[in-house]
Amino acid sequence: MEYNGTVYRPPIEAQSFLVPITEGCTHNTCTFCNMYQGIPFRMLSLEEVEEYLAQAQGAGASACHAAERVYFVGADPFALSAENLLRRIELVKRYLPKAETFTMYARVDNVARKSDQDLRALKDAGVDDLYIGVESALDDVLLYLGKGYMSGETFEQCERLNQVGILHCDLLMLGAAGKGRGIESARAAADLENAVKPHKILMTTMTAYVGTKLDNDIAAGVFVPAGETENLREERELVACLDLPGREFWAAHPLDVVPLRGILGPDTQDMLDDLDYAIEMIDETAVNRVARRGSM
Ligand code: SF4
Fold first, then answer.
1. I need a labelling partner for 265 at 20 to 30 A (CA). Which of 42, 53, 135, 274 fits?
2. Is 292 contained in some domain?
3. Sheet harboring 69-73: ordered strands across?
């Protein structure tokens, strides 16, 4: 099977069985993102998915037989209709008989386009742990980022997922509000996350990738990025304000300067101590976030 584009997945899905079902991103206009530039969104046909599964089975029948958790590859495979997702889940279960959980990236508007009945059917089929690009809880920041939805819509759609019991893992971006707004951003994000109660929170740190509007805006002085110390102070404020005991906080992405992972509540103080130490010790000149990067 030919696959057009790079395969991205959350680092914490490293042990999952990857199954591509879409290419590209339905939105593809976020200010900071170059992951799917030039890749039109496309749903892979059932025949293509089956060809992939048959090849995977040929390469490792025991891995297919043992796989319990499947990660659907693509920027936002949850854009597919419930019917199309259910068909692909049914197909995967024929090749991976123990597969129980189907996880993937989902945009807030992907959720909004599904009825409660659709969501319930997907939950019953095993859909769980949807990765939602929340990024920020500040509407002017979301507007600049070009996410295509506001924080109120994030709240509403995460609540709908909660009501049907589909867990969601929310991605937030440190530094998204720019220089001087880290604490404001952290407090708004904590308020939103405390309300929508994600299963996990995953952090990345804003980075300027070549070819993005963000990169051009930084070069032109239109957007002034926060320095690493401010990003870490933002993260510290967020961790301190989160009231989500027992939920996982994961900030160990290659883009995060201080790798942090723990369970909120029991590990909160340790994470705050690590951040305090880093804030005291960091040499901003050694970590140049504004440096242009080719890709994620
Ligand atoms: S950040 Fe996500 S939604 Fe935005 S363009 Fe990139 S892949 Fe698409």
1. 135
2. no
3. 17-20, 69-73, 101-106, 130-135, 168-174, 200-205, 248-251, 260-263
Q: Is the CB of 238 under 6 A from ligand 1?
A: no
Q: What is the pLDDT along the chain (296 residues), one digit of tens a residue?
A: 778 878 888 888 999 999 999 999 999 999 999 999 999 999 999 999 999 999 998 888 788 788 999 999 999 999 999 999 999 999 999 999 999 999 999 999 999 999 999 999 999 999 999 999 999 999 999 999 999 999 999 999 999 999 999 999 999 999 999 999 999 999 999 999 999 999 999 999 999 998 899 999 999 999 999 998 999 999 999 999 999 999 999 998 877 788 899 999 999 999 999 999 999 988 777 766 554 555 55
Our answer on whether the CB atom of 132 is closer than 6 Å to any ligand 1 atom is no
The CATH number of whichever domain residue 115 belongs to comes to 3.30.750
Provide the whole-model pTM.
Answer: 0.94
Q: Whole-angstrom Cα distance, residue 81 to residue 182? A: 37
Q: Determine whether the shortest distance from the Cβ of 138 to ligand 1 is under 6 A.
A: no
